[in-house]
Design goal:
Rossmann fold; single chain; seven-stranded parallel sheet; 246 residues; 35% helix; 10 strands; 17% strand; alpha/beta; globular
Length: 246
């Protein structure tokens, strides 16, 4: 695992964007695995700026997103399809037909998970999978559990995840209680993993994931088994891990 410790969120975003940009430059038809949440926003802004400047070309790029809330369609302003359009796709020269997000409004969510898993397999392997990290150690919406779940699946969100996401909704009661998410097996199938973290509130999750045992109660700990993981975080987020590694 390679670790890049940056001064702050802006520097973290620039470094992570440079890694993603290098992938696109090296392979113009890359399959990018993308993530949502507040952490990647700066990274996406920097990628869009690179495209606007003529330095990056996304015309051949294909994407698969990690997850989507069950019950929300792509026009809902808290859906992850909406997020991706607003923060990245609307600002780069990508063909939206080549962008893929699970269908949160699917009549049969389990069938949609099987469809999405088959889609990723058909398009893949993913060249680089972007991940954020939940305060409880989740990646995608793979929540702490007794076992790791391999394929794309429907998950019941933990209260801590619901609480963390409540700031994006009018109230906690409006936060969906279920989501469709790539499983850890799908994630681990990517050629490269890029994990971005920011803020002191993520420090203990980072430490548990990379300085503790591999444990499904800390879903991100499975990344210790991946051969090519890049961790980019600011000093606050990496503080506890760097103390252990010192």
């Amino acid at each position: 695992m390679r670790i890049y410790c940056t001064e702050d969120y802006e520097a973290m975003s620039r470094k992570a964007a440079a890694i993603m940009a290098a992938q696109v430059l090296a392979k113009p038809d890359s399959l990018l695995g993308l993530a949502t949440g507040s952490t990647p926003v700066g990274l996406y802004r920097d990628l869009a700026a690179g495209c606007a400047a003529g330095d990056l070309d996304f015309s051949q790029v294909r994407t698969v997103n990690l997850d989507e809330y069950a019950g929300l369609d792509g026009t809902h302003d808290q859906s992850y399809r909406y997020f991706m359009n607003k923060n990245l796709f609307d600002h780069i020269n990508i063909d939206k037909a080549n962008t893929n997000v699970p269908d949160g409004k699917a009549a049969d969510p389990e069938a949609e998970c099987r469809r999405y898993e088959a889609l990723v397999a058909r398009l893949g392997p993913i060249d680089i999978q972007l991940l954020g990290l939940g305060r409880n150690g989740h990646i995608g919406f793979n929540e702490p559990a007794d076992v790791f779940v391999g394929p794309t699946h429907v998950v019941e969100l933990t209260q801590s995840t619901i609480d963390a996401n409540a700031r994006f909704f009018a109230s906690a009661d409006e936060v969906p209680k279920r989501a469709l998410t790539m499983g850890v097996g799908t994630i681990m199938g990517a050629k490269k993993i890029l994990l971005v973290v920011s803020g002191a509130d993520k420090a203990q999750a980072v430490k548990a994931a990379f300085a503790g045992p591999i444990d499904p109660h800390v879903p991100a700990s499975i990344l210790q088994l991946h051969p090519d993981v890049v961790l980019v975080g600011d000093k606050a987020a990496l503080a506890a891990l760097m103390e252990v590694r010192a």
